[in-house]
């Protein structure tokens, strides 16, 4: 494993951390357990990350760049505000379903005993998601789908729905998939 390049090792650490978070029992992840899984010393982990919090920050950065990159694509490609909001909601549920370990980060479940700034960052992510829904729903209102003064309330409701589906997925040990019947439920929320 000594031939692994620094950037590759960093990615491997983050991928292993995400995989460990997929454990439905949600045990606390230690750097010792992470190092053992990677078959390296803890010191080797600290050559790439100054702390476990920094490892979680790496996962959060991946989540943010992936999710907001996809939201930007959807916003550019879809000019209908309602369809844009539906596509964003479906993408967020699909992202969680494909990345169960990261869903535990999204819900804050994996961050309970970690540095509080990590949870603050996830709270900011949720606010940014609501803002993205608000933009789509303001567009939908301007297109005559509902009164303008409903856009913010609908965005909040849609964001709460997404967070709730993520939480249910994580808290049930990934038993209840976030996307189950979601298309119909999202359509009901946006009527």
From TrEMBL:
This is Nucleoid occlusion factor SlmA. It comes from Undibacterium oligocarboniphilum. Residues 30-49 bind DNA. Residues 7-67 form the HTH tetR-type domain. GO terms for molecular function: DNA binding. NCBIfam families: PRK09480.1. Keywords: DNA-binding. Gene3D superfamilies: Tetracycline Repressor, domain 2.
């Amino acid at each position: 494993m000594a031939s692994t390049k620094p950037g590759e090792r960093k990615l491997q650490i983050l991928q292993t951390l995400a995989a460990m978070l997929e454990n439905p029992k949600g045990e606390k992840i230690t750097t010792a357990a992470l190092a053992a899984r990677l078959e390296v010393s803890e010191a080797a982990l600290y050559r790439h990350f100054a702390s476990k919090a920094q490892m979680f920050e790496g996962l959060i950065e991946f989540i943010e760049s992936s999710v907001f990159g996809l939201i930007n694509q959807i916003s550019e490609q879809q000019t209908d505000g309602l369809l844009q909001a539906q596509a964003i909601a479906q993408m967020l549920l699909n992202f969680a379903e494909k990345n169960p370990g990261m869903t535990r980060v999204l819900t804050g479940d994996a961050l309970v005993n970690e540095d509080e700034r990590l949870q603050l960052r996830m709270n900011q992510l949720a606010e940014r998601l609501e803002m993205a829904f608000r933009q789509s729903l303001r567009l939908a209102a301007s297109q005559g789908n509902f009164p303008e003064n409903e856009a913010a309330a609908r965005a909040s409701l849609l964001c709460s729905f997404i967070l709730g589906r993520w939480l249910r997925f994580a808290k049930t040990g990934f038993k209840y998939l976030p996307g189950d019947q979601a298309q119909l439920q999202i359509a009901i929320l946006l009527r």
